[in-house]
Amino acid sequence: MSKIGLCIKLQHDKKRQTRTDNVLATSNCLSQSKMASSRAPYEEVKKLGVGSYGEVYLIKYHKKEYAAKVLHRLLFDPHDPGTATYADKFRAECERLKSLSHDCVVKYVQTIIRSDTNFPVLIMELCGESLTTFLEHSPTKPLPYHVELNISIDVGRALEYLHENSVIHRDLSSNNVLMVAGNRVKVSDFGMSKLDSVNPNRSLTICPGNVNYMSPQTFSNPPQYTTKLDIFFFGVLSVQIVTRQEPNPTDRHQPIPHQSPGVCREVPEVERRAAQLETIADDHPLKPVSLKCLTDEEEGRPTAASLVQTLKSLRGEEKYTQSYEKELHRSHAHKEREREKRMEKSHRSRHRSRRHPRVQLLPNEIKLKLLVVGQSGVGKTCALRVYNGEEFACQECTVGIDFCTKTVQQNNHHITLDIWDSAGQEKYNALTKAYFRGAQGVLVMYDVTHRESYKVASDWIKATNMNVGDAEMLLVGNKTDLQDRRQVRDMDGRNLAQEHNISFIETSALRNENIEEAFSMLVGNIMTKQPHTMRATSPSITLDIDEDEDEEREKRSCCLGRRH
């Protein structure tokens, strides 16, 4: 096809898309009225949004909350005699997708064919807001680097899993990436890509999805693309994450100077997106990753597996750990300010009486940084979740470095624990000193059913001594509930601990056995052997407030309590 002909075709496609959008707008109204039908086997709570394939509702289904996608009428025209066949094929395809399970992919629960419309309704796991909304409203600009990287890794892992299961997303955008707890994400709407193959008679654009995310291959006629299409989408999305700007590329074709009117050149994708790319610093670790994903030729783009491997390697760099520490300190400062506000408000809002009840102030808070290290799969994250009061749950391995904060009372001390959980895939010699910096305690864990993890524990102990020699260590043998598969004896663990002059305990995260005791033992050892790392504490202060005291005396009393 000549370049002039291509320009004319693009204009024709634009007009056809306008007609399609008009039909979609009409179908929105129709599907909304159908949603209220009493024949639906679920309870509609509220409308969450509208997408290119349908409307999304918050529903109650079997007494639980889910997201329901009601597909546009355009996709399953009731006047088309083949609609029932299309619906059956699509439901069968969704049943296959329902079997897919990954912690970075939104779970499909059920596909329902509405009896009143014969349209499929997709029941899905309910997640949080879209990445689009998160980027628009997040108070931190730019996002902390560790958040940028974690989101990128989650999306990459989702694509890797889908591609391994022969699924091409074809519509990846910030609208189809949903936020979950801890600023992590799940990819949604990957099942929508199957609609095109189910109903071949449906009027389509060149390729499903947002045109601002599309790669050159999607504009060919017919479209020619592989899983590398999703990698291009990822490149666009990663730029959006870093810049917090919606993709806005220039025209794909530009007139060639001094040539006949209508003679155009095809603009390379990196050039089309140069305005956004130039706002990213050249030393930003994600920039070269994005550029490689945005190459025009599919052969130049990485696979999802190699992409994830590259992203995970960035976790070992100091920039990642420094970003986490900065966020942790910011969080602590915020919590401290909130605590002081609550204390002051409590003092000012007490009831006036002749003699006010005695107010007990806690001693100064002690803060400890603890690390949990060990080979991947030994149960570090599960043990940490159980210790934090959550239910035991088998899950994917930690990505990067996560942390949680827990406040405990021990030996009459009010102690705040910052517990850092590292990804076991990291090599012990790849963790930076910044990760170990300031740690007072390290919990080294191995799996009693996996001999290799026991051997690796020695290397973690050596790495800890090298990076933070004065930290207290505790060796933990986990998964004692699997006695029939035990490969490491209790005596082996004790001997290793004795060799390095550290404490030892065996635990079961599944049964919640000795988890609390393990952390209490480590904290107790720190309090006993490292008093110089503690903040000075004072006994509790008792304030007796007389009803006739004036405002100035009240202020002095409150300040006195805080100084102690």
From TrEMBL:
ATP binds at residue 69. Residues 321-343 have a biased composition (Basic and acidic residues). SUPFAM superfamilies: P-loop containing nucleoside triphosphate hydrolases, Protein kinase-like (PK-like). One of its GO terms (molecular function) is GTP binding. It comes from the Eukaryota. This is Ras-related protein Rab-8B. Residues 42-314 form the Protein kinase domain. It comes from Geodia barretti.
